[in-house]
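ESCALATION

Customer reports they have been waiting on this structure for their group meeting. Please prioritize. Original submission:
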Amino acid sequence: MTTTLSAVEESWVPTQQDFDDFAWLSGDDNPIHVDPVFSASTRFGRTVSHGMLLYSRVYGLLRKHWPGATHELQSLMFPNPSYAGEELLFRLTPVADEPNRITVEVCRKTDGLVTLSGECLISGDVQ
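Update from on-call: job pushed to the front of the queue and completed.
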């Protein structure tokens, strides 16, 4: 398997349609994710992404950059919201002494605030 021990960085701009599609797929149709009128009255002022929608993008990056590796587990925190229409930067970084441990960070490009922070463990040939 060909992999790299350098960090992976990719951007993505989620849309309201992404939120709506994920709600339909997951069954999580909480109005904070799918109802702009309701969300406008919350402290966020607009709809926010499902946390697991963000992680599904992380998982896709793991599969893309570490093909054939097996995903063992993840530990995640969502300290700030991600909004539709705002560009996000995804950064996956293998830990130097533990190449099967990948640190994960997603931040909003507009203000640098972290919206997903955590790590993943993968197994297989990750060298």
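Sent to customer with the following note: The radius of gyration is 15 Å.
Escalation resolved.
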